């Protein structure tokens, strides 16, 4: 039924799914617009950063056995039985619209080359109605073929997470939104080769809403935890104790408050969902939640400014070490990292900010230090924004001895307040009054 598969976009979503289909014996071609990435893959190397268990080995294996090849050339779509589109779909919050440039360009190039009876599937996260109002028209108008008749069209949203790319694709359930019954059947046949999780057939718009809603839901849950954290700060209690006891109640699952919400999904998916009803409905809760989560980095920086004010100090000219730049613990992924918000808030007040992260190599010209204790030396304060495991085992006596002033701001409940005060630190934690 399927022999040749083309994956458009070989990033966090495309490269693991390409390697998995290749490992199942399909002839897979990965299309990427940058020759560097294409060359990397054709050498059997993984084109993405970060620790991805088994992915580098799998890519090496399937490239060696010639089941996976990379190219910049879309003509390979001519012989494709299935074409999966896995390109980025960021959201421009200034213009309040998705940035579909990569998606449009990929769709046009696919349509110029694809053959009759191919199955085209969009795995990228898209706003509801995008399949009907953008994807289908571009494919039909460019290919002069009719979706659902001359070729099949579906939306199967990805559910990957950095650090668990292969695991998530293999084990999580997937929603297969097809334009008609035949498409849904073909999608289930295709994905059953690599997905052990349940495959749920539905229509395209339902699949679009499920994907954006599942992440909007998580963003709202985190925002609720952050709001309770702000309340606890004012009441002088510990939100993490509150959270633990709340979650003793049945059907409760209060999330973790913290220094902010980063990543490639949560910061944009509620905006994509609300964009799907632009002009007909203005969702309130999820936009309020998004705005609250966006304020957490500056709130975390504010905790430092407040504690310095209490000590008669001004953050201006002070050396502040921001610990953790990745958006997620023990990861090097920096997309939409809350740390940038903390750093910019402190720099705006004149602070001299140094950045430490054990995993992140570099970021747009910012120097990211690798040696924690040298970063701490002579600092006026440490601000912990990412809960990297390394931070849980630091030598507190050593850092107290080398810091100029022992101020610690804890954005991820890494430390125990009472313990830190006992050791002579001036300590503030998000959600800890
Ligand atoms: N965060 C909190 N409090 C929480 C959980 C997360 O502040 O209780 C913050 C994290 O520090 C991070 C951000 O939110 O900055 C995102 O964390 P995440 O655990 O949601 O990680 P992501 O962004 O990689 O989320 C992805 C999503 N998966 C997909 O979109 C396919 C999300 O829906 C999943 O729930 C998550 O992976 C996962 O747990 O697998």
Topology:
Layout: E1 4-8, H1 14-23, E2 27-31, H2 35-42, H3 55-64, E3 68-71, E4 82-85, E5 91-92, E6 97-98, H4 101-113, E7 119-122, H5 130-143, E8 152-155, H6 165-171, E9 174-178, H7 181-191, E10 199-202, H8 204-235, H9 239-246, H10 266-275, H11 285-310, E11 319-323, H12 338-348, E12 352-356, E13 368-369, H13 372-376, E14 381-384, H14 396-402, E15 407-410, H15 417-422, E16 426-429
Parallel strand pairs: 1-2, 1-4, 2-3, 4-7, 7-8, 9-10, 11-12, 11-14, 12-13, 14-15, 15-16
Antiparallel strand pairs: 5-6, 8-9
Helix pairs in contact: 1-3, 4-5, 8-9, 8-10, 8-11, 10-11, 11-12
The structure holds ligand SAJ.
Describe this structure in words.
It is a single chain. Helix 8 (204-235) packs across helix 9 (239-246), helix 8 packs parallel to helix 11 and helix 11 crosses helix 12 (338-348). Helix content is 41%, strand content 15%. The protein is elongated and about 75 Å long. The chain folds into 2 domains: 4-202, NAD(P)-binding Rossmann-like Domain (Rossmann fold, 3-Layer(aba) Sandwich); 227-429, 3-Layer(aba) Sandwich (Rossmann fold), CATH 3.40.50.720. The model has no long low-confidence stretch (mean pLDDT 97). It has 433 residues and is of the alpha/beta class. The chain has helices spanning 14-23, 35-42, 55-64, 101-113, 130-143, 165-171, 181-191, 204-235, 239-246, 266-275, 285-310, 338-348, 372-376, 396-402, 417-422, and strands spanning 4-8, 27-31, 68-71, 82-85, 91-92, 97-98, 119-122, 152-155, 174-178, 199-202, 319-323, 352-356, 368-369, 381-384, 407-410, 426-429. It binds ligand SAJ. Residues 158-162, 214-215, 218, 222, 255-256, 258, 261-263, 265-266, 327-328, 338 line the site of ligand SAJ.
């Amino acid at each position: 039924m399927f022999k040749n598969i083309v994956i458009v976009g070989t990033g966090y979503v495309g490269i693991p799914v390409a390697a998995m289909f290749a490992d199942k014996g399909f002839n897979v071609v990965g299309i990427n617009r940058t020759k560097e990435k294409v060359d990397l893959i054709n050498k059997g190397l993984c084109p993405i950063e970060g620790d991805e268990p088994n992915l580098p080995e799998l890519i090496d294996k399937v490239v060696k056995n010639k089941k996976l090849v990379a190219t910049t050339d879309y003509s390979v779509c001519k012989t494709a039985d299935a074409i999966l589109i896995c390109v980025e779909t960021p959201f421009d919050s200034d213009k309040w619209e998705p940035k579909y440039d990569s998606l449009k360009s990929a769709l046009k190039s696919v349509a110029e080359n694809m053959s009759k009876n191919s199955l085209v599937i969009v795995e990228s996260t898209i706003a509801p109605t995008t399949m009907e109002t953008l994807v289908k028209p571009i494919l039909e108008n460019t290919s002069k073929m009719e979706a659902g008749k001359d070729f099949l069209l579906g939306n199967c949203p990805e559910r990957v997470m950095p650090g668990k790319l292969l695991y998530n694709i293999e084990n999580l359930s997937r929603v297969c939104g097809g334009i008609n019954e035949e498409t849904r059947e073909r999608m289930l046949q295709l994905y059953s080769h690599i997905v052990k999780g349940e495959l749920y057939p539905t229509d395209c718009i339902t699949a679009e809403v499920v994907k954006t809603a599942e992440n909007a839901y998580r963003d709202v849950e985190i925002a609720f935890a952050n709001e309770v954290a702000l309340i606890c700060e004012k009441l002088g209690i510990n939100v993490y104790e509150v959270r633990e006891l709340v979650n003793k109640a049945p059907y409760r699952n209060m999330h973790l408050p913290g220094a902010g919400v980063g990543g490639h999904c949560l910061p944009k998916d509620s905006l994509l969902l609300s964009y799907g009803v632009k002009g007909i409905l203005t969702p309130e809760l999820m936009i309020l939640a998004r705005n609250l989560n966006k304020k957490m980095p500056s709130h975390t920086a504010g905790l430092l400014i407040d504690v310095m004010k209490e000590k008669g100090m001004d953050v201006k000219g002070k050396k502040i070490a921001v610990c953790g730049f990745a958006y997620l613990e023990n990861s090097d992924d920096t997309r939409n990292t809350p740390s940038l918000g903390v750093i910019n808030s402190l720099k705006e007040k004149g602070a001299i900010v140094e950045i430490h992260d054990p995993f992140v190599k570099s970021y747009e010209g910012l120097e990211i230090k690798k040696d924690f204790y040298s970063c701490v030396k002579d600092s006026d304060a440490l601000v912990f924004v990412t809960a990297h495991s390394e931070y849980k085992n630091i030598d507190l006596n050593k850092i107290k001895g080398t810091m100029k002033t022992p101020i610690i701001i804890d954005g991820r409940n890494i430390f125990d307040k009472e313990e830190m005060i006992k050791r002579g630190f001036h300590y503030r934690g998000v959600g800890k009054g």
